Amino acid sequence: MRIKELIERTGTAERQIRYLISEGFVPPPSGGRANADYAETHVEAIVRFNRLKELGFPPAAIRILLHATAGIPFPISRGVTLVVDTSQLATGADVEPMVAKAREVLSRIINNHGRKGSSGDSDA
Residue 19, exposed/middle/buried by CB under 10 A (0-12, 13-18, 19+)? Predict the structure, then answer.
């Protein structure tokens, strides 16, 4: 896709896209400057950057977060932090299965379910 379509798809100004590329938040297009060609990876990178910015992270923090190998920590409540892989940000994935799994894991860990010898033993 050309730059105009990338602008339309992301709602991001051309100047901002060029900034994101120059700063390494978005990979450079293939084909060089005269025949620049953008792909879904560019859309995803721009959306990911914009989402992190919406969450209040400044560009310096976004750079660190995007290079973090463990993911981005989001405090959920006192003593519980959700770590999200950057590849999952702004993907539009169905979160319900993830929420169900997180509920199951938290219930098992915090409520001591599934541990032999504890009250509320389970066969799981």
Answer: middle
Rounded CA separation 4/9 (Å): 9
Check if the beta carbon of residue 13 is closer than 8 Å to that of residue 7: yes
Q: Whole-model pTM?
A: 0.64
- Looking at 3.30.390.60, 3.30.450.20, 1.20.1250.20, 1.10.1660.10, the CATH number of the domain 3-93 comes to 1.10.1660.10
Inter-residue contact 17 to 3 (CB < 8 Å): yes
Give me the sign of the Cα torsion angle 21, 59, 68, 97: negative
Residue 88 · residue 50 · CB < 8 Å: no
3-state DSSP call for residue 116? coil
Is pLDDT above 90 for 71? Answer: no
45-68 residue pLDDT tens: 999 899 889 888 899 988 888 887
Mapped onto helix, strand or coil, the DSSP state of residue 75 is: strand
